[in-house]
Design a protein that fits this description.
Structural class of chain A: mainly beta
Radius of gyration of chain A: 13 Å
Shape of chain B: globular
Number of helices of chain B: 0
Order of helices and strands of chain A: EEEEEEEEEEE
Oligomer: heterodimer
Shape of chain A: globular
Number of helices of chain A: 0
Largest interface: A-B, 18 and 19 residues
Number of strands of chain A: 11
Order of helices and strands of chain B: EEEEEEEEEEE
Distance between the termini of chain A: 37 Å
Radius of gyration of chain B: 13 Å
Chain lengths: 116, 109
């Protein structure tokens, strides 16, 4: 099946710094990438949808100036958490839909962000 | 937008017994209903999915049923094994995928 590679798998940063998370589709082209956030023992909440060549679409309540999304190519989407604060500590995970059916999602391995 | 409710939040079963998780959705336009299994700190893994033109689907010990009229869908795991212990999420898609809150399943040996 298709593979989405996500890096880093975990990161610890100081409050006020920025962190970039990368997701790459390894053997298929991902024109769309979904970015989710998952707090401990909670569900996956969609933050934004990135589309190659256009601006990302953010869900209600998600600050687009804080969570910068760039879909630079058909195989790379990045999420940058700017001026991170402890409340941004969470598990961030990307996913791309199956290009044939646009239904099944292929998830990255996730990034555990801890902001001190 | 779509609202998916999932019950129960936790489920403990004896090894060999069956486990059933139920979900409801709000948007009648939703047409795709996947189920994911997630182990701690890992990515969700698709275990089975069903489309709105199908009422039931089975894959070995796992089955999913869909009642479009009632907007219900359920996951059934038979002959549970300790490795089935995980968090299970249902989801429904109208124009985007919305997830249920999750069910923590514990299979007691």
């Amino acid at each position: 099946g298709a593979v989405v590679s996500q890096h880093p798998s975990w990161v610890i940063c100081k409050s006020g710094t920025s962190v970039k998370i990368e997701c790459r589709s390894l053997d298929f082209q991902a024109t769309t990438m979904f970015w989710y956030r998952q707090f401990p023992k909670q569900s996956l909440m969609l933050m934004a949808t990135s589309n190659e060549g256009s601006k990302a679409t953010y869900e209600q309540g998600v600050e687009k100036d804080k969570f910068l999304i760039n879909h630079a190519s058909l195989t790379l989407s990045t999420l940058t958490v700017t001026s991170a604060h402890p409340e941004d500590s969470s598990f961030y995970i990307c996913s791309a839909p199956d290009s044939a059916t646009n239904e099944k999602l292929f998830f990255g391995s996730g990034t555990q962000l801890s902001v001190l | 937008g779509e609202n998916v409710e999932q019950h129960p939040s936790t489920l403990s079963v004896q090894e060999g017994d069956s486990a059933v998780i139920k979900c409801t959705y709000s948007d009648s336009a939703s047409n795709y209903f996947p189920w994911y299994k997630q182990e701690l700190g890992k990515r969700p893994q698709l275990i089975i999915d069903i489309r709105s033109n199908v009422g039931e689907k089975k894959d070995q010990r796992i089955a999913v049923t869909l009642n479009k009229t009632a907007k219900h869908f359920s996951l059934h795991i038979t002959e549970t094994q300790p490795e089935d212990s995980a968090v299970y999420f249902c989801a429904a898609r109208d124009y985007k995928l919305s997830f249920g809150a999750g069910t923590t399943v514990t299979v007691r040996a």
